[in-house]
Write a structure and sequence with these properties.
The complex is a heterodimer of chains A (498) and B (635). Helices cover 75% and strands 3% of the residues of chain A. Chain A is mainly alpha-helical and 498 residues long. In chain A, helix 2 packs antiparallel against helix 3, helix 11 runs antiparallel to helix 12 (304-325) and helix 14 (375-388) packs antiparallel against helix 16. Chain B is mainly α. Chain B contains 28 helices and 2 strands. Chain B has helices spanning 2-6, 12-27, 33-60, 91-114, 121-140, 144-162, 169-200, 205-215, 221-237, 246-249, 255-264, 269-276, 278-282, 285-308, 312-332, 336-363, 376-379, 381-395, 402-416, 422-447, 461-476, 491-496, 510-536, 541-547, 549-559, 564-583, 589-609, 614-634, and strands spanning 68-78, 81-89. In chain B, helix 4 runs antiparallel to helix 11. The chains are: A mainly alpha (498), B mainly alpha (635). At the A-B interface, helix 11, helix 13, helix 14, helix 15 and helix 16 of A face strand 1, helix 6, helix 7, helix 26 and helix 27 of B.
Chain lengths: 498, 635
């Protein structure tokens, strides 16, 4: 039942926030905060209930909800969580609270509709992380797309319409390719077995003839690679991130990109192991391309938000090489990287948002020496810049190095290139600090340091990122059984590994 | 008492400064300076006290196997990748935590006065405490992954403290340079870790080393590759060729930082790393040779550069690079204990020299140009005498200084060990001449001659006391290990023998040893004499040499550190910036933009056909009908 509530709470909460917004903007804000907190508590209780529990022989699924939806077409409503989904849902709940808090003063127009869209995006994302019927999954995939487009297009910055349309088209085209692939897979399955179904559990292991399998796989791959994003189909992201309101950038970076990674892990590789194996060299080098290209472009930017956006491209390249190395170390590292990138890059976007609220610019050439005025904000930015360059003691280090240790036996050249990406990360991360908080004082106006609301947002982010760096076993233990069952499905993609 | 001390956990040693950092980071801004100073200095002082306790236990009840291990928690546990957050104390770590906590404490004490008027007072102590905590983690780490945590952590603190006065863009550039250059070395080190884990299946230092010794034949490719990659990490951190360029610029930080991080502790981490993984190096003779050659080349290059610097801190910076070159030379010829011994004595006398230089700089209103100093002997007597002792120790004046004993051991091993060679010894001996010369050039220019600057700040007790203690250590610190003809004390090597192997001697003839010692002693005195003749007495020779074309070119070349910065600028920095500039608009965006343009022009072309004229439509229908008919008829 918790699983259904996890979707219903933000869905209904969204309508409530909309209606409340007609009476008073503050009411809508408080109501949304309450909804986000309830969602987080729901996610945490779900985690607490299954923390440290042994997974039985029935597979990795901790909880399952199954109802027929359109039985004539073999479509059912299946929600299930394993350790991987669970952590993604906890992350969604956590980031959801931050997204509401950061919008508190930033959004002043059409507040009710804004929070409705925000909560619906969260509902869609939660659904994506739980849906185990491919049709159902596609449904949630689109549910998260539409309100997100509105968040960017209505409440964004100067070029919001361009960015929103670009985001919409890229994601929609990817989504439609996935829909075609879903249908093709279902029909192939029906032809083989005579059973027409969209259920993930039944579609697993469907034998698809080899050229067809590759194309069907590619439909899924493109949809997820757009979201991830993988170079060269990443270019919706800098625009969307830059133009979105702070909460939009936060959700995009911390959660939406993770749905792409999640899709690769959950669907692409388990459904098409052979076809995925042929993708390995491509995916590895696309990942490396993303790491290096994203790093160089991040360095080249002068718009701070765009800069952070390109760091996402670089960090998510690690996820791509992690998934396609498909061994224990790389995959566990991938999940760590997904969580930690969500926290650290999300935090960087929050910091950029706070700066923008104060100095009304994102142009780093007009910043500098801000530490003298806002030392607390500077200190927080320093921590997350260090997380971004993978400093040990932050969770990002654990994620990136587990991936690197996992990739090493698969492909040494890719490993070395990824390590060079970490040098690039050092260069752009230090540049973030140097051009904003350090350097000659460039802003004459008096600005305030972080207030209580902002401290209340950033303190948990800091604690979590350091916690993940020093005690990662708390989360690793949660997703480990899920990963093991994935290995049970697909022992390996490439020869090699530990 | 011993048993009671043994209940003292090792983790207290790094945890106390870490706690100091936390307190200062969270509430440091609100604390009065006095409290920030007490917390900052006190935490490191307590850590030094804990070190004493831990050391007493270690010496009285030597643990089995020479190592005491303390596992705090499991850090990462993924399949076969098991990394404990665990500390290991052996003789090598013991020497290191002793140096770090004691020298660190003295420098913190000194800083309470040196930084007294600085706006960022509590921030300074927060960073310094964090540094000490990470440095202690580095040397106490039981596995290479945890060592890497300390390794990167000290790099962070080094960055933060070099750029401490952040509103000056030059400081920021120096700080970033230090971080980025060392991270290039770290990449090599990371690959070494990957290889070790892949083959040995563990990153636990002792297990991995034991595995390597058992499974890799001496001279095997993999051992050589791993050793060379570790060397790559070490040269970055320890500012050796070819990654030495960041250290002279690192002098942008406050002087206590230069003393602690860029002289006494962090820059010697590379020496520690190689000593820690000596088993792999012993299996890789070519890598050993590489270490020795890097050391010999670096000590000569940096020694030459130190000759011509005019900034007092840059002289000391090049001197540090050069002295670490000696340590690498020692490591490369298998004189592990001697290298660590020199690490310790160098920590004493170089920290002293930096702190004394800081007192001079403070007295002269932040003046760092040595030619604007002079005659300070009378104005700052305490600083003068301690600086003199430090310089004597750096120059390794025979018998009376600590530097003599440690350097002598390295030079003898460079000649007489099985991995040594006369030319390696010769490099070290020429280096001794350079060292003596530039050390006393500094003394004579700064403290003798005419008074040029106005002294308006005399050091107080909190500055003089650390100077005095370090000066004493710069003299007596060497007496823990003396040559055969001079008491034959072997306390230091006796302590480290449980952790580091002894030198494999090829020559054991003591007459040779004595003769070489005499030669080096003569060379050293010659260097001092030359400095005396050229800089203490009125002499036109330096100016005359500089006036010749070769002299002027060499002087500029050495001043710039052999042109490495310009070279790297051309090779790496400009291409990277050029690439970034070229790509800044994201060329991949053109693909989708082209699709969008094609769609738009198709749209406008097609909408032009909808013009409302019957004529056009009728023409369209006609043409369409003809084409359709043609298709039907012709196919």
């Amino acid at each position: 039942m918790t699983l259904v509530l996890l979707i219903l709470v933000p869905l209904i909460g969204g309508f409530a926030a909309w209606i409340a917004g007609r009476r008073s903007a503050d009411l809508s804000r408080w109501l949304s905060l309450a909804v986000a907190l309830v969602e987080l508590v729901l996610a945490l209780t779900l985690w607490a209930r299954h923390f440290g529990a042994d997974v039985g022989s029935g597979g990795p699924w901790l909880e399952v909800v199954q109802r027929p939806w359109i039985p004539e077409l073999g479509i059912s409503f299946i929600l299930a969580v394993d350790g991987l989904s669970l952590l993604m849902i906890v992350l969604t709940g956590f980031i959801g609270v931050m997204a509401v808090l950061v919008s508190w003063r930033e959004i002043e127009s059409r507040v009710g509709v804004y929070f409705a869209c925000l909560l619906w995006v969260l509902a869609g994302i939660t659904g994506v992380f739980m849906a185990l019927d491919l049709f159902c999954f596609y449904f949630f995939w689109e549910v998260m797309l539409i309100p997100m487009t509105f968040l960017i297009g209505v409440w964004g910055h100067e070029r919001r319409i361009y960015a929103a349309v670009k985001f919409f088209i890229f994601t929609l085209v990817g989504g439609l390719l996935m829909l075609v692939s879903i249908l093709a897979l279902t029909f192939t399955h029906a032809a083989e077995t005579g059973v027409f179904t969209f259920a993930y559990g039944e579609l697993l292991g469907t034998p698809v003839a080899s050229p067809a399998a590759f194309w069907i796989m590619l439909g899924f791959f493109v949809a997820f690679a757009v979201k991830l994003p993988a170079v060269p189909i990443h270019n919706w992201l800098p625009d969307a991130h830059t133009e979105a309101p702070t909460a939009g950038s936060l959700i995009l970076a911390a959660l939406l990109l993770k749905t792409g990674a999640y899709g690769l892990i959950r669907f692409v590789v388990p459904l098409f192991p052979e076809a995925s194996a042929t993708m390995v060299p491509w995916a590895l080098w696309l990942g490396v391309l993303g790491i290096i290209y994203g790093g160089v472009l991040a360095f080249a930017q002068t718009d701070l938000k765009r800069l952070v956006a390109y760091t996402s491209v670089s960090h998510m390249g690690f996820v791509l090489i992690g998934v396609y190395s498909w061994n224990e170390l790389a995959l566990q590292g991938t999940v760590m990287q997904m969580i930690c990138h969500g926290i650290s890059t999300g935090s960087l976007f929050l910091i950029v948002g706070m700066l923008y609220e104060r100095i009304h610019t994102r142009d780093v050439t007009r910043m500098g020496g801000l530490w003298t005025q806002v030392p607390r904000l500077g200190g927080v930015a320093m921590i997350f810049a260090m997380a971004s360059l993978g400093l040990p003691g932050t969770g990002n280090f654990v994620g990136e190095f587990l991936i690197i240790f996992g990739v090493f036996p698969v492909n040494i050249a890719v490993t070395v290139a990824a390590l060079l990406g970490i040098v690039a990360a050092t260069i752009y991360s230090l540049r973030i600090i140097q051009t904003t908080f350090h350097g000659p004082v460039a802003i004459a106006v008096k600005i305030e340091d972080m207030n209580h609301r902002e401290l209340a947002m950033m303190a948990p982010m800091i604690i979590v990122i350091v916690w993940l760096g020093l005690w990662p076993s708390t989360v690793i233990a949660t997703f480990e059984p899920a990963m093991e069952s994935l290995f049970h499905l697909v022992p390996q993609l490439v020869i090699g590994g530990y | 008492m011993g048993d009671l001390l043994c209940s003292l956990p090792i983790w207290l040693v790094p945890a106390l400064p870490a706690l100091g950092f936390l307190v200062l980071a969270v509430i440091g801004g609100q604390l009065p300076r006095r409290w920030a100073a007490v917390i900052g200095t006190g935490s490191v002082g307590l850590s030094a006290a804990a070190t004493l306790g831990v050391a007493a236990c270690f010496l009285r009840h030597p643990p089995a196997g020479g190592v005491r291990i303390e596992t705090l928690w499991t850090w990462i546990d993924v399949g076969s990748f098991e990394i404990g957050f665990s500390l290991a104390l052996d003789a090598l770590s013991l020497v290191m935590i002793f140096v770090v906590s004691f020298v660190g404490f003295l420098i913190h004490l000194y800083s309470t006065e040196y930084m007294a008027d600085d706006e960022g007072f509590s921030r300074f102590f927060a960073y310094m405490n964090l540094f000490v905590a990470f440095m202690l983690m580095l040397v106490l780490a039981d596995n290479l992954f945890l060592l890497y945590l300390g390794w990167e952590g000290v790099g962070l603190c080094s960055y933060l403290l070099i750029g401490f006065w952040y509103t000056d863009a030059a400081n920021g550039a120096a700080a970033q340079k230090a971080f980025i250059v060392t991270r290039v070395g770290d990449t090599a080190m990371a690959v070494a870790l990957l290889l070790l884990f892949k083959h040995a299946g563990t990153l636990d230092v002792r297990q991995a080393m034991a595995w390597a010794t058992e499974n890799w034949a001496p001279g095997s490719t993999m051992a050589v590759v791993v050793a060379l990659l570790l060397l790559g990490g070490a040269v970055g951190k320890s500012a050796q060729l070819p990654l030495q360029t960041w250290l002279p610029d690192a002098m942008a930080g406050p002087t206590p930082v230069s003393a602690l991080i860029h002289a006494a502790t962090m820059v010697t981490a590379g020496v520690y790393l190689i000593a820690r993984t000596h088993a792999v190096f012993l299996l890789a003779p070519p890598a050993m040779t590489a270490v020795a050659v890097v050391g010999a080349a670096t000590l000569l290059l940096a020694g030459c550069s130190a000759l011509v610097q005019t900034d007092i801190k840059r002289v000391l910076a090049y001197s540090t690079i050069s002295q670490i070159g000696y340590m690498f030379l020692g490591l490369g010829v298998g004189a592990w204990s001697a290298a660590v011994f020199h690490l310790m004595t160098h920590a004493f006398f170089k920290a002293l020299l930096f702190l004394a230089a800081g007192a001079v700089i403070l007295a002269l209103h932040h003046e760092q140009d040595i030619f604007k100093m002079g005659g300070l002997r009378k104005r700052l007597p305490a600083v003068f005498w301690t600086f003199l002792l430090g310089s004597a120790s750096l120059a390794a004046l025979p018998v009376v200084t600590a530097g003599f004993y440690s350097k002598d051991l390295i030079l003898w091993a460079a000649w007489a060990s099985s991995a040594g060679a006369p030319w390696l010894w010769a490099a070290g001996a020429i280096g001794a001449l350079l060292t003596a010369f530039y050390s006393f050039r500094l003394v004579f220019i700064v403290f003798f001659g005419d008074e040029k600057g106005h002294v308006d700040h005399r050091p107080g007790l909190k500055i003089v006391l650390p100077l005095a203690v370090l000066a004493a250590l710069s003299v007596v610190g060497g007496f823990v290990e003396t040559p055969g003809w001079l008491g034959h004390v072997t306390a230091f090597s006796h302590l480290t023998e449980s952790a580091l192997p002894a030198v494999d001697w090829a020559v054991t003839d003591h007459h040779v040893e004595h003769r070489l010692q005499a030669v080096v002693a003569g060379i050293t005195l010659l260097g001092v004499l030359a400095a005396y003749l050229l800089y203490l007495r009125p002499s036109s020779i330096p100016a005359a040499v500089k006036a010749t074309a070769l002299g002027a070119w060499l002087s500029r070349f050495w001043l710039s550190g052999w042109g490495f910065d310009a070279l790297y600028d051309r090779l790496f920095i400009r291409p990277f910036k050029g690439l970034a500039h070229l790509l800044r608009g994201d060329p991949f965006d053109e693909i989708s933009a082209t699709v969008a343009r094609v769609a738009e022009s198709g749209h406008s072309a097609l909408s032009r056909t909808q013009n409302g004229r019957i004529r056009t439509y009728a023409f369209g229908i006609g043409v369409g009908a003809v084409i359709a008919a043609a298709i039907v008829v012709l196919t």
